[in-house]
Predict the structure of Acyl-CoA thioesterase.
Amino acid sequence: MTNSYDVEIYVRFCETDAVGHVNNTSHFLYFEEARSKFFRMIHPNRQSSSSFILASIKCDYLEQAYAGEVLKVSTNVLSLGNKSFTISHRLLTSDGSKIIAEAEAVTVCFDFTSQKTIPLNAKLKESKS
């Protein structure tokens, strides 16, 4: 996907650790915020019985970040399956000059009533083009 979906993140003091940099667990909060906003964009009128669930996520930490910094998460669809898709997240400085971390997440479309995976919606498939 050539177009990325960007979300601005303000690093709060409570997201840092004893060393003073952003704690490794906070990165996943930033990715979740970006993913949630991305999902609302591609599926704004989702049915309450179905949603996207996270099946897997991995993160590579490349640089440090600190409280008070403004960062951005850039999200892209990497690949689509029938019922799942893989997205990339890139955590960057606000000007994009430094990559703080990179992540890949596998997400599944899931129906909570039937407790089964379901096919991806057409809007998501169109977003990959």
Observations:
- The helical segments are 24-42, 122-127.
